Fold this sequence. Notes:
Blueprint: H1 5-23, H2 27-43, H3 45-48, H4 54-93, H5 97-116, H6 119-129, H7 135-142, H8 146-170
Amino acid sequence: MTATPQAVYLENESWLRTVVRSRVQEADAVEDIMQNIALALVRQRDALKDISQVGAWLYQVAVRQIMMYRRTTGRRRNFENRLAAQVTERTAAAPDPVASVLAAEKQEAVREAVGKLSELDRQVLMLKYVEGWTYRQLAEMLGVSEDTIEYRLLKARRRLKSLLRTTVEAA
């Protein structure tokens, strides 16, 4: 009889969490990575019975998830830096100080709004619009259909628009 993905996860959760926490200090990120490990277990449930050293396999899954998190975080940071540089260039070229202040406020509003999006929304938007990924590439990476990607992008754009609108109204 093979163990269920849930049983395997619960049996190994403590040490996996320690591994993740030792490499990623943000508590929210640790939880996200642990969820991704659990999802990997569910996706690979048929292969679990053929894995002789589940601990070693789980360790590799955890390390991959940590690397993916770091990559995503780095891309987001690069995206924000590029946005800041573009706004700075535009601001430097603009002789009007009012325009400079408005551009800086827009930049900050976009950063705040992007920061308030869920990790999945940020990831999907950045991979699509910053990295230029296709719907197919996004679907393969997330293990969902292209229709689902289209829907997630639509919802993420709407959330971003709503957050920006709220920011503008609050100002």
